[in-house]
Structure prediction request, 210 residues.
Amino acid sequence: MKLYDYETAPSPRKVRIFLVKKGIELETISVNLPQKEQFADWYRQKNPNCTVPSLELNDGTVLCESEAICHYLEEIYPNPPLFGRSTMERAFVNEWLQRIDFEGYLPVANFIRNCSDAFKDRALPGPKPVAQIPELAERERDRAQQFFYTINDILESNNPWLLGKYFSILDIFAFVTLEFADKCQLQPEEELNALEIWLQKMRDSLEATN
Ligand SMILES: N[C@@H](CCC(=O)N[C@@H](CS)C(=O)NCC(=O)O)C(=O)O
Prediction:
């Protein structure tokens, strides 16, 4: 198996942390996004959507979404379980993966892609140019703010991790989203205690595994 990656991009980072937490080592190939290598023929043939990450299986099949890649790896390497340990936990994980993506990751990505010159005509990833909508950036900034409160609220009842007792993929996907927000200058407007404690715990846990 081979992972197509780019070091500073948030979506492949989700998969890289998942691999570390599972103790899996994979051959990793960097696709240089600033040099537009995602559009090169050799990569487009593997992933026509021209995004990273992609996971190429030994039979040549390619998975092109970070969540699907993690699901596949969970089935191949079930321990430690990162998608929940019971029917109810797995349902909670599925529900919150969708919410983290829709209420967190997409607002942050839409914010930066619609206001930064670096993403001119690249307001959405993919093979075709898409024009920016500056008003959308404003709306998405507010949605990202709401997401900080949403995660803080869960952590006030579920701790130490988003699922409760066990570390899961929810912690990985939410953490990468919050660090991505920080990089885009989107920080909580007020101090959110449960969120801050959990962020520090995540940083410590990643340092310990590196
Ligand atoms: N939903 C996809 C998102 C993938 C995505 O948007 N990747 C970005 C990097 S974080 C990308 O490849 N961008 C290339 C571009 O903007 O042309 C996933 O989770 O894998």
Remarks:
- The CA atoms of residues 149 and 191 lie 10 Å apart.
- Strands lie at 2-5, 27-30, 54-56, 62-63.
- The mean pLDDT is 97.
